[in-house]
Every structure is written in C-alpha cells, then in structure tokens.
Amino acid sequence: MTDVTAPLAPPPTVARWARWAFPVLAALLSACGGDRIPLSSMAPPLIRVLLGAPREAATIGVADAWEVVSVEGGSYANRGTNLLANVAAGPRGIQFAGVPTGASVLRLRPTGAFTVEMNGERLAYRGDLLLRLSGARLQLVNELDLERYVSGVIGNEIGFDQAPAALKTQAVAARTYAFSRYRSAPEAPYHVTDDTASQVYKGVSIPAWAGVTLPQLDVWTAESRGVVMTWDGKPFPTYYSSTCGGHTTDAPTAALDPMGAAPVFLGVPCAYCGPSKYFQWDETVPIQRLLDALKPRGVVAPITKLEWTKLGRGGWVAEVTVTYGPKGAKKVVPGSQFRTAAGLRSMHLKSVEVASDGSLVFHGGGWGHGVGMCQVGVQEMARKGFAPDQILRYYYPGAEFTRLY
Ligand SMILES: [Zn+2]
C-alpha cells in the first residue's frame, strides 16, 4: 500500500527533523553497532502477537486457500483450500489436523483471514499464524504488518463507539508502544500479548454493536501511517491507562520503565476524566484479603497501620509502609504491588479508614497505573474537538512525532 493520507496534523518537527535527523541518527546507530532496526524503513515491520495463553491444543480455520510449512524442526508442508483443523502439542512435534509433523515451529499462510477458537469465541485475524512448541504447550502467534495490528487494537483499547479523534489518537499510541517493544527484541518469538499486559487486540473481529467497520478502522489508522512518538530521537513505550483521576503520575511510581523517556512521563494534571464513574471511588477491602496477599512478605495479623511513605507525581502512592504483628514490625511495599495485594483500581489514593466491621475503606480515584495517556481523558478531549496530535502532546509532554515509513 502506498501512503494514502495526510499525516496526522504534521507538527513542524517532523519536516525539520526529516532533513537531517535520519542520516545523523543512522550514522550514530551504526557507530554504536548495536541497533539493527533503522528508524526509517520502506514498509511496516512485522509484529508478532501472542494470542491468548499457550495451550495444549486449538482449533484453527481458514475459509480460502492456505499453506503450512515447517520453520523449525522436522520438515513438513501442506496446502489446501478451506481448513478446520485441530492443532496440538505432541511428543513428535506439532500435530496438524491429527498428523504428527515433527516440526517445532509451523507457519500457516492463509490467502485471507484465519480463525482461532479461544475461550469460547472464534476470532479472525489477518497475516500469518505461527505455531510454536513451548514445552508441552503450543504458542499461537499472529505475525502481521504493524499497521494492520494497530487497526485491530484501537477499538478494543479506546472504545469502538468513541469520537474518531480518540481512535486516531489511540492509533499513534498503540503503534508507538508496539514498535518500541518490537525494536527492543526484533527476533523474539513474540513482541506483544493480545491482552492488557500489552494492548488488547482481537484481529479483525469487531463486535456487532460497534457501529464501525474494519475499513473505517483501517482508514483512521492509515491517517497516521508510520508515525510514532519519539523522545531524544527514539520511540518509547507509550504507556497509557484507563482513568487517571485528575493527575497522571511518573513511571517509577508505577514500577514502569520509561526506557529513556523519563521526562515524558513526569505526570500531568488531567482536566478531562471527571465524567468517568471511576474518577473518584471508595473501595472496601477485607483485612483478611490484604493479610493473605502480604503473607509471603512476612506480614502477619494484626495490621495496625498503613502509611503512604513515598508519593509520586500527582499524589500517587509509590510506597506503602505496613505496620503489623504483635511487636509493630514494619514492611515497605511498592505501590504497584500493594495495589495488586489489596485489589485496588489504582494507587491514586487519598486516605484509608477502618470500617465498623474491621475492613479497610480506601478513598481514591482513577483506574490503572496512571502513567502516560489517560484514556477516558482522551475520549473526552476528542469529544470536545481536540485533534489527535494535541491530545498526545497533552499526555506525553515534550515528545515528538517521527514518521517511520
Ligand atoms: Zn485523566
């Protein structure tokens, strides 16, 4: 595909940089000798997405012509039209439609889309399917062009029913995040997962209620084709989370690695996620849940005090000190781990009190780790008429835009 649309409201930096930054950067990178991925290339890179958790077997389908070839292990090749087959991890390599292939990695190349049945639903994908033996399990990995991947992320991440500017904003963030993962380990068996641990991706499957079509998602993605956000000339992991509760926070507070772009992730006031029902909340946590979760750290009853002993930007709790046990021992717990232990929506906490039944009531706001883009804020800014580049500059201050291809 050629470049179909205008860049996302091209900031002057792109043009200014393009003239000299790429040759200079390329020279620098080759001088360092370590980086094999040029920042500027002709085609989108192929991204590998792990579909679901590794499993013993799966059912895959193809409606059109397909071929399958061994990539590693014993040689195997097959082809046909129409396919509904069980694939499984076997003692003699991957079993394909009941046949032991001897292969440890198979590549399925469909002419069109392929389907995988997972968790009771059948999802369809573009690109190739890599089947890889991993112990007694099978990894299902979708390898496809980065642009098509991004198109399969945006609706699932920001909401199919949002203003187009929200989906276009999400496209740049999703592309940048995925590209930074790809760039850090291009040869990895997979670069991202298909869930919130990376970005939610469901291939070309769009829910019936969505009200948008795949071609529409492709167009919104193509409007920023190849554009990623950079800091100091390098793409960075564009972290984002659901709701910040009025202020985003810095990366270390949420135990995230800014990967060289710390100044972008210092946290900003957010004036836009107020309409979210998670902007402010009270959450009741049974004291026993906290005790059970902190037991591996040596915390025993009674817990007599919880203190925020380190605060990050925007008042997010970076560290909780727990006073516990008959002698009042203290344990320092990183905020992100305390959040998991207590099962809280976020660590944007204001206070905690003890209810009459002894459980803890946390008063806080937001949902997620609070670093980078606030997605509910993005939805609201898009509704109010802000352009994608304005929204991205708001949540990633100081970052620049670079076109990769
Ligand atoms: Zn917000």
What does this protein look like?
With 405 residues, the chain is α+β, with helices and mostly antiparallel strands. It folds into three domains: 1-22 and 152-236 and 371-405, no CATH class; 48-144, no CATH class; 281-364, no CATH class. The protein has nine helices and 22 strands. It has helices spanning 12-32, 146-151, 154-158, 164-184, 214-222, 287-294, 335-342, 375-383, 388-395; strands at 46-50, 57-73, 77-90, 93-96, 99-100, 103-110, 114-118, 121-125, 128-134, 137-145, 192-193, 227-231, 234-235, 240-241, 281-285, 303-311, 317-324, 329-334, 349-354, 360-364, 373-374, 400-403. Strands 1, 2, 3, 4, 5, 6, 7, 8, 9, 10 and 11 form an eleven-stranded mixed β-sheet that branches. It has a three-stranded antiparallel β-sheet with strand order 13-12-22. The chain has a three-stranded antiparallel β-sheet with strand order 15-20-19. Strand 9 and strand 10 form a beta hairpin. Helix 4 (164-184) runs antiparallel to helix 8 (375-383), helix 4 (164-184) crosses helix 9 and helix 6 (287-294) packs across helix 7 (335-342). The longest helix is centred in the N-terminal third of the chain and has 21 residues, at 12-32. The radius of gyration is 24 Å and the shape is globular. The termini are close together. The protein binds zinc ion (ZN).
